[in-house]
Amino acid sequence: MKSENENKNKQFNVPLGYFESFEERLLIELKFQKLFPNNNDGFLVPEHYFSHVEQAILDQNKPQGKLVRYNFKTILSSVAAIAAVLLVLFYVVNPIEKEMQFDSLSITSLESYFEEEDRIQDYFSAEELSTIQDNTSIFDDQSVSEDLIYEYVDQDIIQNTLDGQ
Amino acid sequence: MNHLEAHTLQPLKFEDLVSQYKERLYWHIRRMVISHDDADDVLQNTFIKVYKNLHNFNGESQIYTWLYRIATNESLTFIKKRKRTTQIGSEELQESLVANLTSDPYFNGDEAQLTLQKAIDTLPAKQKQVFVMKYFDELQYNEISEILDTSEGALKASYHHAVKKITEYVTAH
Q1: Do A40 and B117 touch (CB under 8 A)?
Q2: Among A47, A92, A136, B164, which residue carries the largest CB count within 10 Å?
Q3: What is the ipTM of this complex?
Q4: Residue B82 CB: number of other CB atoms within 10 A?
């Protein structure tokens, strides 16, 4: 049968393990109180310190006496502004070249690209390669006509398109 | 009327705040940074920050807890800066500060109080803060809760652990 107190307090709860740990917590607190009966920490201040420090604080914070202290935001914004000006100047003095177009590429550059990187096999069939090798270079004739380029590059595409129609 | 509530009903005057709270804030700071000279620097920095931000104080918290929070943050910032400057670990630094108390002209504690300071310095930062605020500054848990933004339950547990560790340390030494 439950005790009368238990029945009366059934609407209240306590943290888990509260009563089990209560004695231990009480003993620790009593032991501590016995070791340190008052909360004097032994620290002292120089004579008249508090009246002097009050005056010093008020003097430092007078409205007309501005404090010169590092302001990280101000420094950061100044540095950012200088950097922006330098960046603009750099691009004015050394303008970036316009975006490269196929027309602006020299024949030599294209030749080097394919030959040095050994990419030519990725772009041409074996039959075309044998033709190229026979003629030493596809770009020897620098006055290649537009029709010839179309014939080379889009031959299959045009044919497929025509076949499709 | 509680002194903590006095300033919420009238415009805050900086001079009054300095006059009323300088000592309590000093002792809180002193127990964190140990030396008087450092506490003096941090106290002045605290009030400079208060002066600059007084217009931002919205009265949602009590003025004293607001001041206390600034003082706590300034003390922690100071300790971190000092750690960077001296290039030694914070624990090592605290140990040397406590060891120097014996020759400090502004410390007159007996052997028990010196041991207590050494014991406090073995505590983790958060436990140390809670212990100092509760035991020395005699703040209520609800006030500490507001200053440290921690639940009262967690603060009570923290304080109990601190007392237990200090008692064990003092008994062993």
Answers
A1: no
A2: B164
A3: 0.70
A4: 15
